[in-house]
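User: Could you go from structure to sequence for me? I need the amino acid at each position, not a summary. Structure tokens:
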């Protein structure tokens, strides 16, 4: 699929009041600029008396914004089964993630822009931009309102609700994305709007979103819109079980020019602690890859442990039945990792992944039967 790049981005952001009350929550969708500077008590409005305003008001308000950067770099070696008893191998250096962010808050207003570096053409495409350069596109671009600590509304290119919750609990995106994103069941961001209400006494949140439904990487292809409803409940927010969360979401929607059904039901049990973060999740999909009649099931489990400061261990396994109406159309994936935080902004990881498809999936997904070794680093400011 051809990826369309946005190489010039104009952003103007004004942003909001006091930060919300702390509670056990997943990390943000991207960790770029995780800490925001306090908003000034007041700012003088620009004076255009007797003159025209500039073509864009970006940078003219005198308000403070917070820049941020998150980048993954890795070296990967993959051994892929080509024929029974035979394997080919390939290795490369790559940058799986480059995020540059600007976040602003003032009064009840909040806004954020995240630029993402990607290859200009997807795998299998014959033509890219300037060969196949790494170019920029929008990952987030939204403006919204934050009322006190309990209500947030955002519109634009917004983070969705399910993928960020699971990925933010995992907190090892540098090791691998959430399977629900990797399989294409759900996107981490989309064009639309979200509203979120934080429950009192840190009991969790409820949220709703409305999107185009094609993800942030594609243009809208039909008149249908996707609705996502999600809720997270912490049964015991005041005790030792504070990190325990029960999360559920439902997406009703469509995809492609044919308005193919694309509904998703997800249920998860999560542990969002400091030293231990873990989760088990099941997603049932009605409709997959523009086939509205296909039903699919994804089971995902993970654990991240930091037994002592700076040392991290991760384990994640997923079982994906691509077609519940068939036999052998399955993909099993297991990833293990060990990492070390050299300094607060910088960490390195060694990860090993084994992916084993069933017979039908092996034929439908060439290259899906492999072993992979990765040396990955992450830096965030």
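Assistant: Here is the amino acid at each position, in order:
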């Amino acid at each position: 699929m051809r990826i369309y790049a946005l190489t010039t981005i104009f952003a103007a952001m004004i942003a909001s009041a006091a930060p919300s009350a702390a509670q056990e929550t997943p990390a943000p969708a991207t960790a770029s600029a995780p800490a925001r500077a306090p908003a000034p008590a007041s700012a003088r409005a620009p004076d255009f008396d007797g003159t025209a305003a500039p073509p864009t008001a970006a940078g003219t308000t005198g308000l403070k914004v917070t820049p941020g950067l998150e980048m993954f770099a890795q070296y990967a070696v993959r051994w892929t089964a080509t024929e029974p008893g035979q394997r080919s191998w390939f290795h490369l250096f790559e940058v799986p993630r480059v995020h540059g962010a600007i976040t602003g808050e003032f009064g009840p207003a909040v806004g954020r822009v995240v630029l993402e570096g990607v290859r200009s053409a997807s795998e299998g495409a014959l033509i890219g931009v300037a060969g196949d350069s790494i170019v920029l596109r929008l990952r987030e671009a939204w403006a919204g309102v934050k009322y006190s600590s309990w209500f947030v509304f955002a519109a634009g290119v917004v983070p969705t609700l399910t993928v960020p919750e699971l990925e933010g609990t995992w907190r090892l995106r540098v090791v691998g994305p959430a399977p629900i994103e990797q399989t294409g069941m759900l996107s981490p961001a989309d064009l639309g709007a979200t509203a979120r209400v934080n429950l009192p006494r840190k009991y969790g949140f409820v949220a709703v979103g409305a999107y185009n439904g094609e993800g942030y990487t594609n243009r809208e292809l039909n008149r249908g819109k996707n609705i996502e409803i999600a809720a997270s409940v912490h049964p015991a927010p005041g005790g030792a079980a504070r990190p325990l969360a029960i999360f559920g979401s439902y997406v009703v929607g469509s995809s492609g020019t044919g308005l193919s059904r694309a509904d998703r039901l997800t249920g998860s049990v999560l542990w969002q602690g400091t030293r231990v973060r873990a989760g088990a999740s099941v997603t049932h999909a009605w409709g997959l890859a523009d086939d509205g009649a296909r039903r699919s099931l994804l089971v995902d489990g993970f654990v991240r442990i930091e037994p002592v400061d700076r040392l991290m261990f991760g384990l994640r396994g997923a079982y994906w039945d691509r077609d519940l109406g068939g036999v052998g159309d399955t993909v099993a994936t297991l990833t293990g990792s060990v990492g070390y935080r050299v300094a607060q902004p910088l960490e390195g990881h060694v990860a090993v992944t084994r992916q084993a498809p069933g017979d039908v999936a092996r034929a439908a997904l060439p290259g899906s039967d492999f072993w992979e070794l990765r040396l990955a680093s992450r830096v965030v400011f």
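One structural detail worth keeping in mind: The chain has three helices and 18 strands.
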